From TrEMBL:
Name listed for the protein in its UniProt record: IP15201p
Keyword presence, Transport: yes
Biased composition (Acidic residues): 282-294
Residue spans of biased composition, Polar residues class: 121-131
Key words, A-Z: Transport
Coiled coil region boundaries: none
Length: 529
């Protein structure tokens, strides 16, 4: 007789045991059968998290104060299983050579372990019980809801301390309208929508002294920001190794960034470090043929997922990819291969620069404090950054745009004249939501088979005309395309025999409606920088 509890319980507890040290799942089975189990003071397996997320940094410590699993046994087909985490803390740093070697060794050990398990238990991947029970279990697992409250991440680099706090994070499955709901997953034609909601994201940037202590805490660089991330995954189970589509979109309604003169040098150091940062890339051990065999066997089934997962951070840090030097085996006249699209959208971004200086407050017992004086505010509206890549087609493009911009002095530099007040301004854009056109956040655009993705230069230019680009972002529009050009031939030959002319990079920059004011305010700001 099929008992759902006997299948769901080990799967849920195995997830916890994978990421938590010294976990005894047999102690939690009875509590979970009753509908809820709670764990406290858990230490995380940092090497597993680094490997799973392919983090470009090294986790020094990770701790969960409380973790609960809630299973609605009587409503499993209509309500999701919930995993609730209360207060999770991380400390991270840049990886050194020793940590890179340790991480590479861990990766090789995981490959060997996976290879041994596949040999010893070849039928392990098959769900026990009848086919109907397998679909039920898959639906329950794919709809697990994760809720995190109070996420704390601290990053330390020399004298810089970056502290990030997230009040609430919610990860769930979503329907076609991108609302959290229970969804069914087709066993062959798979379309998955995942929704990640982040509330009250705050980032602080402070400087510590030679003793490693922060003398005075500065105002947050980013305060209580709300983000929404949508992930769309589409593939056919029979052809996932050759064709898949992954789209990731991040949207924020308002982003307020405040940087002081004391924080500005630290921000520039962090930006430079981020631009140079890449996920760790591990080479196969040439002396271990077992590893090579494991990689060869696993690459075909995981190519679609790994190609997207391993490159998320790399795409965030770099502008354009570098194609392989080898010529493609065939031209891409049909949209085959693994397509990946990453989009970041902000309805409004405000950047404020302030002068800051230390002073001793005698009224507070002579403690050291910071005095802030506002200097400049830059307000940007309707921003977007999109990156699309089809590796098999040797095609990649980046699009970015800006719909409005205003730069104005503050405080003593602010002019009383309304005409003279702004250093830079633009006309009000009429289509306030045009910058998210054809994105995952466009309510009027339904996902279709790769209609958002071009894989041919002529098709791309026809879809993305100058008029369309200025429609999305009337102030500033930019795109860059990297593609491989085949040599045309008057004689019919096989596609694989087409001669390759190499990679071509083409840029386009469009702008309209920007007004600069060189006034007395501009001279004052320039003199007092």
């Amino acid at each position: 007789m099929f008992k759902l509890e006997s299948y769901i319980t080990p799967i849920l507890l195995s997830y916890v045991a994978k990421y938590v040290k010294n976990f005894r799942d047999e102690d939690a089975q009875v509590s979970l059968w009753e509908g809820e189990v709670t764990f406290q003071n858990l230490d995380l397996r940092l090497e597993v998290l680094e490997e799973e997320l392919n983090l470009p940094v090294e986790l020094v410590s990770g701790h969960i104060h409380e973790l609960s699993i809630l299973v609605p046994w009587t409503k499993l087909m209509s309500e999701p299983v919930k995993i609730v985490i209360n207060t999770i803390e991380f400390v991270a740093k840049l990886p050194d050579s020793e940590s890179k070697q340790r991480r590479a060794s861990f990766q090789r050990e995981q490959r060997r372990k996976s290879k041994r398990e596949s040999v010893e238990q070849p039928d392990q991947t098959k769900s026990p019980g009848p086919a109907s029970s397998s679909s039920v279990v898959n639906k329950i697992i794919n709809n697990i809801n994760l809720q995190c409250h109070n996420i704390i991440l601290k990053y330390v680099e020399d004298d810089i301390v970056v502290s990030m706090n997230v009040q609430t994070l919610n990860f769930s499955s979503a329907g076609e309208d991108w609302k959290p709901t229970m969804v069914d997953i087709h066993p062959v034609s798979v379309v998955m929508r995942k929704l990640l909601q982040v509330s009250d994201l705050t980032i602080c940037l402070d400087k510590r002294n030679t003793a490693g202590r922060i003398e005075v805490c500065q105002e947050p660089v980013l305060y209580r920001c709300t983000l929404e991330c949508r992930v769309l995954r589409k593939y056919n189970a029979n052809t996932v190794s050759t064709t898949s589509t992954t789209r990731i979109g991040v949207f924020t309604k308002s982003l307020d960034i405040n940087v002081s003169s004391l924080q500005f040098p630290m921000v520039m150091r962090l930006v430079k470090m981020l631009l140079e940062l890449k996920p760790a890339e591990f080479e196969d051990d040439p002396q271990n043929p077992e590893d090579q065999e494991a990689v060869a066997e696993g690459s075909e089934s995981q190519q679609g997922t790994e190609s997207a997962g391993r490159s998320v951070f790399w795409w965030a840090w770099s502008l354009l990819p570098s194609f392989d030097t080898e010529a493609p085996s065939s031209s891409c006249d049909t949209p085959t291969g693994h397509a990946f699209d990453l989009g970041v959208y902000a309805e409004e971004l405000n950047f404020q620069l302030k002068n800051s200086e230390y002073f001793t407050d005698q009224s507070m017992g002579g403690i050291k404090r910071i005095r802030y004086t506002p200097i400049l505010r830059i307000s940007l509206g309707g921003l977007y950054y999109e990156r699309t890549i089809l590796k098999e087609c040797d095609w990649a493009n980046v699009k970015a745009g800006l719909s409005s911009m205003c730069m104005e002095p503050l405080g003593a530099y602010r002019s009383d004249d309304l005409v003279d007040r702004n250093l830079v301004n633009t006309q009000e854009f009429q289509q306030e939501r045009s910058f998210i056109d054809k994105s995952l956040f466009d309510e009027n655009y339904m996902f279709a088979e790769r209609s958002w993705c071009s894989y041919n230069y002529a098709d791309y230019v026809a879809r993305n005309t100058d008029e369309y680009m200025l429609f999305r972002s009337p102030v500033l529009a930019f795109d860059v395309i990297e593609h491989r050009v085949p040599k045309p031939s008057s004689h019919p030959v096989a596609e694989s025999q087409l001669r390759d002319l190499g990679v071509r990079i083409q840029y386009r920059l469009l702008s309209a409606g920007i007004t600069f004011h060189f006034s007395q305010s501009f001279v004052q700001v320039k003199k007092n920088r």
